[in-house]
Amino acid sequence: MSYLFVREDREYLLAPGDTLESDLGILEVPEDVEPGDTVETHLDTEFRVRKLRGPDLFNHLERTGAPMMPRDIGLVVGQTGLQSGDRVLDAGTGTGVLSAYLGRIGARVTTYEADADFADVARENMALAGVEEAVEVRHGDVTDELPTLTEGERFDVLTLDTADAAAVVERAPDLLVSGGYVAVYSPFVEQAREAVEAARAAGLEDPETLETIQREMDVGDRGTRPSTRGVGHTGYLTFARRE
């Protein structure tokens, strides 16, 4: 189990028994360290120990591409009602941030990654997040596995972050339990349209696409107003439900 070791504007991800060497001194992490503890380097520099939470995973897991942002993941969970015990089929693992989030709320995730190296990194990240028992990372293209998957256990939610997501949406009725959801993350609006059209053709209920935008508020002495630092767009999320 790894924890965050925090001091002012610095934070490090370390496990019991690890050693950190920095300009703040040498930190020997005790084997019995727990969240809430304070530990010191040999130069008496103090670090606070914190338990890892979702946003920390986003900041500290090894990156193999552009992962979904926490705001997008929150929308997936909120729109689908994803909960502990749900079975999730995920495609386009990448770094594995989404799979890690879902595993940490109690879902059982089977995730496919087409790049073998990315899949290896994702497995390491699942171990770091403490969800290696909840998340199975498979190397391969999920579209190649559809004949086998559609003959097996049904899933409560499909989460797709791949260019060929529409091909999986077409088979969603054969993959989902009654009332189950499909959620497609698309960086381009053309892909979102393809997902909606595939959902309609498959007879899924209420397909809709939402753009995720988040604006930070600047709070100052003169007043409070939206930040002018960009519009905060990340992507498009398409949702549909099996009857």
From TrEMBL:
One Gene Ontology term from the biological process aspect of the record: tRNA methylation
Q: Indicate the segments forming the tRNA (adenine(58)-N(1))-methyltransferase catalytic subunit TRM61 C-terminal domain, all copies.
A: 70-219
InterPro entries noted in UniProt = rRNA_Ade_Mease_Trfase_CS, SAM-dependent_MTases_sf, TRM61_C, tRNA_MeTrfase_Gcd14
Keywords from the UniProt entry: Methyltransferase, S-adenosyl-L-methionine, Transferase, tRNA processing
What Pfam family is a match for this entry? GCD14
Mind listing the GO molecular function terms for this protein? rRNA (adenine-N6,N6-)-dimethyltransferase activity; tRNA (adenine(58)-N1)-methyltransferase activity
Please give the name of this protein. Answer: tRNA (Adenine57-N1/adenine58-N1)-methyltransferase
Q: Which GO terms describe its cellular component?
A: tRNA (m1A) methyltransferase complex
